[in-house]
């Protein structure tokens, strides 16, 4: 259970960092709202993203993995659509940059907060 909580906090921190660094991304100031957005984002990445990855595998190969950034942007836009105003992403390019920021922050925090079991 603690691993799930750590992932939720990492997602929340990454979304918050994206909102600070990308001008066209805004996230609610409430901690509970940010955690809800992080939960939605985590569920989308756990359920929908693997299906999208499976169907777009040839595109990943052709672009040498760069299509990952497009898929991450689409997942962020979907999170924005489902979060009922708690997360606002104004356009694809904001989502694209936000996806890059989220990936970097999430990776760095995962390295430092990893649970070596």
How do the strands and helices of this protein lay out in sequence?
Elements (H helix, E strand, L loop, with lengths): L1 H20 L3 E3 L3 H25 L1 H6 L4 H16 L4 E3 L2 H21 L5
Molecular structure report:
The structure is a single chain. By secondary structure, the chain is mainly α. The chain has one domain. The chain has 5 helices and 2 strands. The protein has a two-stranded antiparallel ribbon with strand order 1-2. The longest helix has 25 residues, at 31-55.
Strand order of the largest sheet: 1-2
Q: What is the overall silhouette? A: globular
The rounded Rg comes to: 14 Å
The N- to C-terminal Cα distance equals 13 Å
Mean pLDDT: 92
Number of beta-strand segments: 2
Helix content: over 70%
Tell me the structural class: mainly alpha
Short description:
Helices cover 75% and strands 5% of the residues. The protein is built from five helices and two strands, in the order αβαααβα.
Please supply descriptive tags for the structure shown above.
single chain, 117 residues, mainly alpha, two-stranded antiparallel ribbon, 5 helices, 2 strands
């Amino acid at each position: 259970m603690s691993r799930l909580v750590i992932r939720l906090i990492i997602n929340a921190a990454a979304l918050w960092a994206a909102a600070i660094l990308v001008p066209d991304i805004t996230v609610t100031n409430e901690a509970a709202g940010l955690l809800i957005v992080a939960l939605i984002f985590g569920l989308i990445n756990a359920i929908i993203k693997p299906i999208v990855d499976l169907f777009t595998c040839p595109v990943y190969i052709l672009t040498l993995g760069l299509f990952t950034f497009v898929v991450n942007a689409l997942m962020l836009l979907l999170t924005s659509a489902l979060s009922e105003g708690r997360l606002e992403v104004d356009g694809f390019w904001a989502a694209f940059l936000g996806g890059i920021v989220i990936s970097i922050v999430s990776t760095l925090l995962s390295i430092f907060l990893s649970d070596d079991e």
